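Async update (no meeting this week)

Hi team, since we skipped the sync, here's where things stand on the single-chain job. The sequence we agreed to prioritize is pasted below, unchanged from the tracker. I ran it this morning and attached the output directly underneath so nobody has to dig for it. Comments welcome in thread, and please keep replies under the output.
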Amino acid sequence: DGSKQSGGRRIEVAALTAMPKALQQVADDLSAQYLITYTLPDGVKPSDRLNVTLKKKGPTLRAPTKIADK
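Output:
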């Protein structure tokens, strides 16, 4: 469940010959990532919910289901 909880994904490699393809998938994922941050305006109460939508078809949104308390 680690990859699901962190917002990532798991790539299973059944044979050593499949390793280059799996590593290329990881490299492609890393090179296509964006980091989105936001700051609440003064006076706005923080919430434990955030709604993010994608207008463009094709991209996948990966995000943790819960962010650990700091």
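Quick observations from my side:
Helices lie at 2-6, 19-31.
The chain has a mean pLDDT of 81.
Reply here if anything looks off.
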